[in-house]
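Attaching the record inline, Q. Sequence:
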Amino acid sequence: MSAGSAEAFDQLDRQIAVALQVNGRASWRAVARGIDVPERTVARRGQAMVDSGLVKVSTYLDTTRVGHARPLIVVAHTEPGMSFPIGQELAKRADASSVSVLEGTGQLVCMLLPADGAAREELLHRELPSLAGLRDTRVATVLRYFRSGYDWYADGLGERAMAELRTLPSSDPERTDPVELAPEDWALVAELARDGRSPISALADAVGLSPPSVQRRLNRLFAEGAIHIRTEIPPKLLGLEVEVLVWIRVSPLEIDTVGRALATHPAVRFCAATTGPTQILLDCLFADENHLYDFLTGYVGAHGASEIANAAVVVAALRRGPLVVADSIH
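Structure, as predicted:
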């Protein structure tokens, strides 16, 4: 079994992968110091996972602040046997952030980020209805993120490792003001979308700027919250066998309080307030159904949720941020 393969993934690989979730641009030296493993070993193992695509480090561009995107949660019902083909088509879209096939017959959920009002209208009234095998859709607009996915990482690292890894400039998660990008910034974002670990020197060569200028621009983009480094890893490699989407109803006065509280649970990697008949949507990862049961019957109610409107297990994730698995049905 080759290094960087799913079959060979072990506890050390897990530590390295989680370290890259905390900071996908961390040097192998910083990762090695954090987990107390020789740098050569960390570099060899880590680079093999990155090169194989097992771990994908990319950039999350906050299109709600850079541009005029309105994130949409689309629940699609399809003809029998069409959920995977339609999901695979949606996963290829440039504005797709996540695409999941759910348990049951013909249901999938995706988050799409149309760039503006015109793109939104084209998506909802022309592109989606034209998909063969699509029966109907239910659409909700994301109003507020409490956790966005890029800021989630699996357990397994101690405080020492976290201190070594948290070196990127951080932004205020409450900021909603627009951020304007210069052409050079857009060029950097495009390069980081292809490879979130691209060195400063390589970025400088690609965009025609000096390394200090590139570093200053990146620091500003991170500090303003325009971009975030996002690392995606197949959850099963982290021992997380069950993914579930949970729709919750709460009183309007409690949306903010409940959303913030639920987002702190270590299993919750996405939490947002949305329009529609439910007020909060969660995407959660658990080791098994017992942990899911405890979460639904204990934690959710204890933190203010008045009703679980729906909970559906994800059968297959076809897209997670930059990680596209469009040809897989596993």
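Residues 326-330 have pLDDT under 50 and may be disordered. The longest helix spans residues 39-52.

More tomorrow.
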